[in-house]
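Please, structure for the following, as tokens.
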Amino acid sequence: MGLDIAKKEIVACVRWGQGRFERPWKIVNTGEIGLLIELCLLLKLKCDGFSVGLESTGTYGDAVRFALTETALSVQRVSGKAVSDYVGIFDGVPSQHDGKDAAMVAELLAMGKGTLWPYSTLTENMQVIKHHVRRIDTFRKFQTQWLGRLEALVARHWPELTSQLKLNSVTLLTMLEAYGSPANAIADPDLSEKMTRWGKGYLADKSIGSNHKVSTIWLTLLG
């Protein structure tokens, strides 16, 4: 049996053999999962090697996957890419719809393209780690957006700055906050010393000279 899962409904399709499919039908997600499990148990009793497959994308399938695992039914994951690649091969038509997707999942499962995917609850520690990974990922997306906006402004008003420093470097960001423009930076006689302090040893000697020598960035700004 192949399942195509959405937020409010599940489309199921049973494959009996080569080219033999039941007509797809819809199950309310999650209200009718119990009825689906009863039918699956009946099929398992009557059929040899019955298994259920679903795509690996999204979390709307977690409830039915949990129910299948709890009742000792074989549940397997089928790659979403495999389903997408199989669209034209399945019936010679490049279009997709929920019933066809469910049938393709069942077909790929019968072809041995599925992998066992029983539901397992993460430990509390792993749930905390997963939460923080998602949180960091969200912050990085915002960072990328704002760095893109900042890059456009720097390219217009201070284009030579990024030839010496990376846009996301602490030194560059601190310089922008402290000076705001190349004119203000040039006017500060302590620029090299401050950059050394801001860089905290991560800036190469070629970027900032020691013993109060003029930095290459200063020369760029003066040029």
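The mean pLDDT is 88. The domain at 2-116 is CATH 3.30.420.40 (Nucleotidyltransferase; domain 5).
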